[in-house]
Amino acid sequence: MPSHTEENYLKAIYKLSEAEPGAEVSTNSIAEALQTRPASVTDMLRRLGEKGLLSYQRYRGVLLTAEGRRVALLTIRKHRLWEVFLVQKLGFAWDEVHEVAEEMEHISSPLLVRRLDEFLGFPEVDPHGDPIPREDGAMLRPQHRLLSELKPGQQGLLVAVKNTSQPFLQYLNKVGIVLGCDIKVLDKILFDNSLEISINNAPKTQVSAEVSRNLFVTS
Prior knowledge:
Layout: H1 4-18, H2 27-34, H3 38-50, E1 54-57, E2 61-64, H4 66-90, H5 98-104, H6 110-119, E3 145-146, E4 155-161, H7 166-175, E5 182-189, E6 194-199, E7 205-207, H8 209-212, E8 215-218
Helix pairs in contact: 1-2, 1-4, 2-3, 4-5
């Protein structure tokens, strides 16, 4: 059974690989994601390679094996289910759950995870709109696009956020952007690509290009 640290590595590699499926993930990008030294990453990659959880070639990068991918998806599944539980059953806000779920995702009981999923009504997404892997590893692939891709006059429902850091979620709370809200693009400022938007038909507000690149909407 992989250690907590090993599960964290596999989860990070899987998430990084989603940006470019099939491409090898670099040591530096893993170190940046986990906020650790590249030398430490190299040591861990060797260990995971010896366990058959990934394929690692020095100076080229890594690819998860089928078993490594299974462990990564299981860890993500547990994390996102616990986030749903914390929000729906314990009243946590969406900006409060990540660190708690980081601890709870390492509980290994398959029966507990199965009962938790059933108790929650088999949710398909977590509180941030991220899809929850099923027990067999299958995962919903939502059809959405970034708010930054919308043109003036277009609108969509907010279905997910790309950046799930606490400061970003707290900013969204402050300006009234939550999952399910209707966002209409009123104008795009060419100088910095910021957007003037209306949230649920309220008076306009302005969000930066960085913010618009981290919001997923569907029409």
